[in-house]
Amino acid sequence: MCTLDITFEQNVQPSGTKSLVPHQKQSQTHTANAVCFTLVSADTWHRRLGHLNARSLDILRKDTGTGVDYRDSLSPCGVCQIAKHKQSPHPKQSTRELSRPGQLVVIDNMGPVNPPAKYKGGSFPYACKITDDYTKMKEVYLLRKKSDTTEAVHTYNMCVAAAGGYRIETIRCDKGGENTGSEFRDYCKNSAIKLEYAATNTPQQIGVSEGDGQTLAGVTRCLLKDGDFPPSM
Questions:
Q1: What is the pLDDT of residues 189-219, one digit of tens each?
Q2: Which of 2, 7, 27, 88 has minimal Cβ neighbours within 10 Å of its Cβ?
Q3: How far is residue 195 CA from its own chain's centroid?
Q4: Looking at 20, 48, 71, which one is the last position of a domain?
């Protein structure tokens, strides 16, 4: 922006007529200010405003009070394409068609919980959530340590075999140390269980169990609050 100041001074002639003569010192002075703006491109405004999107930038341009003005259109921004890149959404429905219980079981651990849960004189800071993806039936096993996951899965496998006459065929879980250790992998191998690991930083692949954790925590907090129970319960 540039500013141009032009000063006119009033000169009174003997005959009483008035004339405006530039740059002469007289008793009265009048100054007119002329302001001119340099038009800025849309791309420059886009960068100045933190790489603002085109729609919001156009809203600011239409508001004369913002000072944002441009006449061209916004060009594709390579910086935005890299810095604002997002992962494609995962499908809500599984592409695998299940036909029977035990065909796919999803497990996920939660914890440590502070204070830990108390049960039969023991202290359990962890919990293993096991969900049958076909029936959506869920089981929760309290754990003293994460490495007890193998024992929890074995207990679940024996229970469904006795009650429903089927066993676990496939387990899907994350790549936590309790799931990648030799003890857990050997158990799955000896029990003829196929082991599937979810991709790193992709909780959607075990979402059926991840969501259970939030539900379980919410129900627990409500019961404790409603009954005025201590957090240790």
A1: 999 999 988 876 665 556 565 566 677 777 7
A2: 88
A3: 29
A4: 71
Tokens of 13: 């002639």
Lay out the sheet containing 2-12: strands in order across. Answer: 18-22, 2-12, 28-36
Q: Which domain holds residue 17?
A: 2-71
Domain count, the chain: 2
Under 8 Å between Cβ of 130 and 153 = yes
The residue written with tokens 């089927």 in the block is 166
126 DSSP β-pair partners: 143
Distance CA 69, CA 60 (A): 8
The pTM of the whole model exceeds 0.85:
no
Angstrom distance (rounded) from CA 216 to CA 117: 13
Torsion of CA 44, 47, 50, 54, to 10 degrees: 70
Here the CATH number for the domain that contains residue 213 is 3.30.420.10
Averaging pLDDT over each range in 15-19, 48-52, 211-215, which range is the top one? 48-52
Is residue 81 in a domain? no
Q: What's the pLDDT score for residue 14?
A: 55
Q: Cα-Cα-Cα-Cα dihedral of 206, 212, 218, 221, to 10°?
A: -110
pLDDT surpasses 90 at 37: no
Please, where are the H alpha helices in the chain?
A: 42-48, 54-62, 78-83, 149-164, 177-180, 182-190, 207-227
- β-pairing verdict for 28-36 and 105-110: unpaired
Looking at the structure, tell me whether residues 63 and 170 fall in a common domain.
no
